[in-house]
Amino acid sequence: MVLAGKVKHFGQIVLRVGLPLGILSICIHQLAPHLTQSVWAGFPEQLARIHWTAWASAFVLTAISLWTVGRYDGVAHQHFATRIPRHQARAAGTIAIALAQTLGAGVFTGAFARWRMLPDVTSKMSLKLSVFVSLSFMVCWMILTALGCLLFPAPSWTYVPSLLTLSATPITLIAMFRWPKIHLKGYQFRFPNLRSSAAILFWTLIDTTAVAGAMYVLLPSGADIAFTVFLPLFLLALGTALLSNTPGGVGPFELMMLGLLPQLPAGEILGSIIAFRFVYYTLPACGAALSLLRPFKRDCPRKIPENLAPNSAGQVDVQVIVQNGGRLLATANGSCAIWPTSQTLTSLCNPLSGDMLAALDAINAEAEVLGKHPFFYKCNGENAAVLRAKKWSVIHMSDDAVVFPQTFTLEQPNLRNLRRKLGAAQKSGMVIKIDKACPWSDMQRMDHEWQNAHGKARGGTMGRFEIGYLSNHFIARGRT
């Protein structure tokens, strides 16, 4: 078994390293006819003919792209709730991507760079961040490339794949919203929420447009091609290069550009690609490599908030959210109960202590850390007025009745409907019992029957059947 495991691991390494090298070898063989002696000799002259304004534009567009790619890591750190300072997360992401896109093996190269730059992030988390950024970028690249191929002139063979990709996009988003977590072979995968997905798609749009622009301005001056025609072609070549996993995408990118731009001389296209690689790959990679010599300093230990104890709050609705990962959030002058869902960070009921303004500031800050929408649920009218004054949308949903057992009486005019329903229940033979020994098996059977009829219990403010939680609470049961 040990030998088989080692052989399998060795085979994975060979495949991971050998496949990109094999692709690179094939591409070089295909490019060889275009790399004649005259083409090699003409590269210096061609680079010298590029106007300084084109070089300056390429550097500016490269800077925009590098500034953008750091935002991917900002979203990734929110998704995994690392609580790394935003500027550090973005800077480490920029350095990691600048190295990974040049050296190849992007997931592992990027993971190493992130681990090196962020001492507070473990190697395992660095790999998770790298995988998240790589996969999310590829998905967004597919969507944007499909959109570009349908909106702008593109090869005819891209029509059907583009149409299928865009048709599947809303279905995928609905599935991500409905099933934010999936379990596969003992592992749990959590999709980014809709806010994070929209952010990644937006930054990918800015990034890919800037990269395409950096290449476009370096094309030969005689190249008569509009940017709207060039953009989908560049995106196709970029995706091919990324999927090949060769260092810098060398080989597949050149072949795709030559094939997609047959109207331009091959030598001039290759010369522009050399200039582009110098501006977008070589210089940023050198700067990123130097940055690895000065990683960020280790931050002071960050206190992770503890989960909410079942009996630590007086409100029943607040107590029950411990079943859903609810916890207390400290505010400037008190605390509030928060309930993280896949899309929102919900503050439940009124602040347990302190005022609403402090709770508002605290939940806004925490929602930003987690990349979720802040939300308040079931607060009173006074606190709703505070939220409305802060430009929040407020919806009146219901009015709660607060009962004081010491002074409560049914003999009130506004309780006639309640008296009627209680009388009907009494006539039907309904009896409320309080037993010292709770019939857990009967209660569990009723819960199974309810879930079979209505679906899985979502919890929330209603809670779920859980013996450990109910054991600490008052229980009354009725029978006829």
Q: Could you please describe the fold and organization of this structure?
A:
Helices cover 60% and strands 8% of the residues. With 480 residues, the chain is α+β, with helices and mostly antiparallel strands. The protein has 3 domains: 2-291, no CATH class; 316-389, no CATH class; 413-479, no CATH class. The protein has a 4-stranded mixed β-sheet. Helix 3 crosses helix 4 and helix 4 crosses helix 11 (266-291). The N and C termini lie far apart (62 Å). The relative contact order is 0.09.
Helix/strand layout:
Blueprint: H1 2-31, H2 37-49, H3 52-80, H4 86-103, H5 106-117, H6 123-151, H7 159-178, E1 181-184, E2 187-190, H8 194-216, H9 227-244, H10 252-260, H11 266-291, H12 316-320, E3 327-330, E4 335-340, E5 344-353, H13 356-370, E6 373-377, H14 381-389, H15 416-427, E7 431-433, H16 440-454, H17 467-470, E8 477-479
Parallel strand pairs: 5-6
Antiparallel strand pairs: 1-2, 3-4, 4-5, 7-8
Helix pairs in contact: 2-11, 3-4, 3-6, 3-8, 3-11, 4-5, 4-11, 5-6, 6-7, 6-8, 6-9, 8-9, 9-10
